[in-house]
């Protein structure tokens, strides 16, 4: 097919461009003639003298060919072949099949100031009366964007949106603990085409929270679980109460009741601390005036659906 090309010469070097920084761009235009108007122009791409994608510029070997355009001159057998070179090519050894390219993962630190009831060591922030005091700290969140070419959209795509990682997962050589990652958006662009391959450029965003995405808070409330005396003498079944001598054997049971304070008793207007069994905790201080917080109980709510992130295309 190369014999169909009867003429090939550099018509002119159309332009070159130097920008501030390392970027350099060149454009060359070749005049080519085929043996007949009936010969398909695709033979030009296979002509040995026609530059191919990735070829080096003859005077600037750092500039690679990234664009070849073949245009017929009117209705003749003559063609103008425009060839462009650039040093601004991110992937010099770029895989021609977009489906075989590795996932592109961008990680950006996004520190934010958030409210907290914990100090830097994880202890509660309390005032001198033992009340929780809200504070603020900067959390080093990470925004992770993953781009991966796929032949078709995967079945999991919409089911994973808004979910957190059920198990630890490694992304770019860093291991993330379970429930620290949450998918916060999935992009579904239309079908794309490159180098003869059809593909979809799937994109999804992940938010990393080093504290986990769980809702963690102290057990507090206006009610308590209290063990009280029912005030009734215990009488075994089948025994006539008239035959029973009243004793101190009484029945105790756990009940849920509103927390009261003072004398006369009044309902509390602020939430009080509760232990792991729901009992009221009255904070006491040690000799140094520090509150004993050993009985305070943390509640952890996992509100987000958990999924296996190992199914995601991180490679």
Task: Summarize the topology.
Layout: E1 5-18, E2 24-34, E3 64-72, E4 78-86, E5 104-116, E6 135-150, H1 157-160, E7 164-165, E8 169-171, E9 174-176, E10 181-187, E11 192-194, E12 197-208, E13 215-218, E14 220-221, E15 223-233, E16 250-258, E17 260-261, E18 266-267, E19 272-273, E20 298-301, E21 306-307
How would you characterize the overall build of this protein?
- With 315 residues, the chain is mostly beta strands.
- The protein folds into three domains: 2-86, no CATH class; 98-213, no CATH class; 220-296, no CATH class.
- It is 1% helix and 44% strand.
- It has one helix and 21 strands.
- The chain has one helix at residues 157-160, and strands at residues 5-18, 24-34, 64-72, 78-86, 104-116, 135-150, 164-165, 169-171, 174-176, 181-187, 192-194, 197-208, 215-218, 220-221, 223-233, 250-258, 260-261, 266-267, 272-273, 298-301, 306-307.
- The strands form eight sheets. Strands 5, 6, 10, 11 and 12 form a five-stranded antiparallel β-sheet that branches. A four-stranded antiparallel β-sheet has the order 1-2-4-3, with no helix packed on it.
- β11 and β12 form a beta hairpin.
- The longest helix has 4 residues, at 157-160.
